[in-house]
Amino acid sequence: MRKDKIMGKIFCLMGKSNSGKDTIFKELMKDKDLNLMPIVSYTTRPIRSNETNGVEYYFINEDILNEYRENGKIIEERKYDTVNGPWYYCTIDDNQINLEVNNYLLIVTLEAYKNIKMHFGEENVCPFYIELDDGVRLERALKREKEQQNSNYDELCRRFLADNNDFSFDKLKSCNIEKFYVNDILQECVNNIKSDILNLIN
What we know:
alpha/beta; five-stranded parallel beta sheet; four-stranded mixed beta sheet
């Protein structure tokens, strides 16, 4: 009897702001043992001085976003009412994802994870929640904001406070996310995630 083809998986990194998601993402992406492909999300927020279009995000305006909506290309979409007005983040059906060929890694919010799981199937989408002490996160956030050409401390504070609601224990539990990857020591955290990914794909 022919066995069904084993499908690839989408590994979703998530966590509060400045918990180290971007650094962990980069470490996992360059690991040849994992051989993961990135999924680059889209956003209408302004690009930061240390970002590159098409790497962290595809930076688009609302006119382009509306075209994707009209063409039914939105997999999931989130809106944030920031101190600078509404910013949209979304995952687009733009032929980046082929689960018959590859395993993927992307950074998401909890809400995005739920919608991606609904779109691709629970068996194909795996969450990895990054945890870090709030005091350390705030120190990192302040340092990063100081390095920006146009620092925006109001938005930093809004985002920091919103994280407590967006990633509350009850919301994580409702998504069956009970294992946390503590990022006190970066390499240990990366190794723990790598080990679990290998167990899921081998």
